[in-house]
Amino acid sequence: MNTNSNSYTLIFTLVLVTVVAGLLAFTAIQLKPLQEDNIRNEKMQSILASIGVKESRANSGAVFTKYITKQLALKEDGTVDPDVDAFTINMKNEIKKKPSEQRYPIYIAENKGKTSYIIPLFGKGLWDDIWGYIALDSDKNTIIGAVYDHKGETPGLGAEIREEWFQKQFIGKKILDKPNDFSKNNFVSVHTVKGGAKSDDIHGVNAISGGTVTSTKLSLMVKERMEHYLPFFQSKK
To answer: Residue 178 is part of which domain span?
Structure first.
């Protein structure tokens, strides 16, 4: 074959592309189990972090069941759906469904003799997805920890939601105006305040300076997600 001909160049290019595509596909298949393990461990790491248990991603799977005693998938009325594995619920897909068709995962933890309730969060930030976990004390009213992350918020501004200084503000805040009243009228949630929350504001935290939109979106996400758990908490009074 004439190596200087157009046909040779075309055939060579097609063979090269086919070989490279095959190698990439083979590599992706071989790495998929490892990627899935990393995603699973990172999820466990974040859940544990919401109750103050700091573990490496690699070690989180080994200690997860030490603290997380129950993983429940709730229906809209607060009852448990025994046919759904809470851990495998894809929040990004789930929130696209009607509330009556969604399943709401909740993780119940035991740490130092105290029970806590961990709620997964998912919503939209300024530019892309934001998500996280928020943990409530045994009174189901007091926040004991929060972990947030994002896909594409602005570095130095909205992206600060993943920083510890921002997340620590939520500790000690309340989601109810009156304890033990889980009605929608009494549910306030927690919100970010532009310019800074007052020291006696039991529901407010400081918004991120320059990241007001992301802060507001985060507040909306927390309130929208947590409201779905009121029937469950009411039944646990």
So the answer is: 39-235
